[in-house]
Specification:
A hairpin with a 4-residue loop joins β2 and β3. The protein is globular, with a radius of gyration of 19 Å. With about 260 residues, the chain is of the alpha/beta class. The protein has a 5-stranded mixed beta sheet. Strands 4-7-13-14 form a 4-stranded mixed beta sheet. This is DUF2971 domain-containing protein.
């Protein structure tokens, strides 16, 4: 797999994803399926990481709760009480194909640092097929499409028209949820969506259970934390059980000679 194959999907107009069924209820974007053997990464808080490692749990959030104004605009355009997706519940989890991004380490660090947990995409799909989800729910996994703001608005209008024409709302909803401004292309994002038809009064966060910690391939600690803090995190995480994932502090901020070892 060449470096070019995992570059962000920068576009002038939204494409029509090809969805491949993977198991009982998971549908995978063909553009992501080509990277199924690669790791995908979640830049997560310590609390989120501990929840996955200790209890096999995670949470998916409604897009209307996200801080980016344009992503909220997409949600408000389609998911208002009068909108075409008013009765479709949607909850997302965002990951990335970027394993060495200074911007991602800095963006998600917060006040207490961040961890980067990674697993192969095909293993993630296997985990998603094991989840206990509401009846009729569909899981869709796709790569974000990055467009300039004007092109994004045009794409959203076309998707809205398709919904008004009576198309199957779930794949169209997922297309809308994969739209991002080109200024965020450095995120190189993969999105997992749990979509539920005929959803009434959806909760802000959907908890999911049954994730297996031994599926994780790597856990890396914030490269900008002092070494003594990273050592404490490493010891705490390693004490949770005998699982094969590698736990270490990222060498992203190491001295060049040390980084080569």
């Amino acid at each position: 797999m060449s470096l070019k194959d995992r570059q962000p999907l920068l576009m002038r107009r939204v494409d029509e994803p090809e969805w491949r069924r993977c198991g009982r209820r998971v549908f995978l974007d063909a553009a992501a399926d080509e990277l199924a053997g690669r790791q995908v990464y979640r830049y997560a808080s310590l609390a989120e990481t501990l929840l996955w490692l200790r209890q096999g749990r995670s949470g998916f959030a409604r897009p209307a709760t996200w801080p980016d104004r344009y992503e909220r605009f997409v949600a408000e355009r389609l998911w208002t009480p009068e909108g075409p997706l008013a009765r479709v519940g949607a909850w997302l989890k965002c990951l990335s194909f970027e394993f060495g991004s200074e911007a991602l380490w800095r963006t998600y660090a917060g006040h207490g640092g961040v961890l980067r947990i990674g697993l192969r995409l095909r293993d993630l799909v296997a985990e998603l097929n094991r989840l206990a989800l509401p009846r009729g729910a569909r899981v869709m996994v796709g790569r974000c499409r990055y467009l300039d703001e004007r092109d994004l608005h045009r794409a959203l209008e076309r998707l809205s028209a398709r919904l008004q024409a009576g198309e199957d709302p779930l794949p169209v909803a997922m297309q809308a949820l994969l739209l991002k401004r080109s200024g965020f292309a450095w995120e190189n994002e993969l999105r997992i969506a749990v979509l539920c038809p005929d959803s009434e009064d959806p909760p802000t966060v959907m908890p999911v259970e049954g994730l297996r910690p031994d599926r994780l391939q790597s856990v890396e600690i914030d490269p900008y934390l002092p070494a003594w803090q990273a050592a404490e995190w490493q010891a705490a995480l390693a004490s949770l059980g005998d699982w094969p994932g590698r736990i270490r502090q990222s060498g992203f901020d190491a001295e060049p000679a040390a980084a080569r070892r």
